[in-house]
Amino acid sequence: MPELPEVEIAARNLRRWGGGRLIRAVWADPRAKRVFRPWATAAVARSLTGARIGAVRRIGKNLLVTLGRGAAKSARQVGLWSHLGMTGKWVLRQPGDPRPSHARMELTLDDESRLLYLDPRMFGRLRWVPDAHFDEIPELAALGPDPLVDGIEVRALADRLSRVRRPIKVALLDQSVLAGVGNIQASEALFRARIDPRRPASSLSRAEVGRLRKGILASIAFTLDALSDSDSEDGDIHYVEEDRTRNPFLVYDRAGEACPRSRGAGAPAIVRIVQAGRATFFCPDCQRT
DNA sequence: ACCCGTGTTCGCTG
DNA sequence: TCAGCGAACACGGG
Question: Which nucleotides of C are covered by protein (CB under 7 A)?
């Protein structure tokens, strides 16, 4: 599920499955009004039918699909903005496969394969963007730099954080600070950078922001690797080995376990605290400063 | 039965 | 004016 690395995998899958293909038919769950708001499900279905899938971009946790309509020359474009929320997921199904539960939209392509958006909790969003003018969407304009797309500029990040009083862990969840960092990546990055998640963001030195940059990039790269291994041809999660792959993270969801940095007798334990209503995992021993 | 949740938004408060 | 916080959204899994 979806932080930057999961959404990046989804983008790669969508390119592989749908790139260049024509959408032959569209089904949208009429009960999922919430997901399509403010557009009516019927209107979205109508606007996507007959369109050809073009570029798939990812910005933070957002997927931006550009589709072309009509002849290539005078092609009018439409955009599809997909945010996976907490439980959203794109999968591929072949003709005859049953429609999975919690399907909210189904795109039948010109090779009869089917692209499905699943979302049990319906916290995700699917929005039609007229003329693919993604740059006119305020929510996207408000996003900070994407660590993979734009990189992380230490000076700019330090400058931004210097004006934030909230704990650094909470600040990292703010999508206008960095686009794509979520609850797991924030804990993991701070552990890698050896920074106490409770520190006021404004108290970080330039050197610490430098470590944080490295921690974020390393954690994202590591998670992408782990996901590539477990992601399968049709987007279903496939665990290679039942237990080890389940939680590949260093500290996330590991409360009470020994700190991976100092194994052995008397090793300190990972602690779980709650910040701004969200779980944070860290090692009180090596994330001291 | 009950608690928890990889995300975001809204409304209230100081 | 606005940062900060809890609740709400809706459902499955442990």
Answer: 3-12
The reply to whether the CB atom of residue A1 sits less than 7 A from any atom in nucleic acid chain C is no
Q: Is residue A280 pLDDT above 90, yes or no?
A: yes
Partners of A114 in beta bridges: A93, A108
Give the confidence band of A245 by pLDDT, cuts at 50, 70, 90: low
Full-model pTM: 0.95
One-character DSSP codes across A51-89:
-EEEEEEEETTEEEEEEEESSSTT-EEEEEEEE-TTT-E
Nucleotide nearest to A275 (CA to C1'): C5
Measured from the Cβ of residue A74, the count of other Cβ atoms closer than 10 Å reads 7
Between CA A237 and CA A228 the distance in angstroms is 10
What is the average pLDDT score of chain A? Answer: 92
pLDDT tens digit sequence for A11-29? 999 999 999 999 999 999 9
Query: DSSP letter at A3?
Result: S
Three-class DSSP category at A178 = coil
The Cα A201–Cα A207 span in angstroms is 13
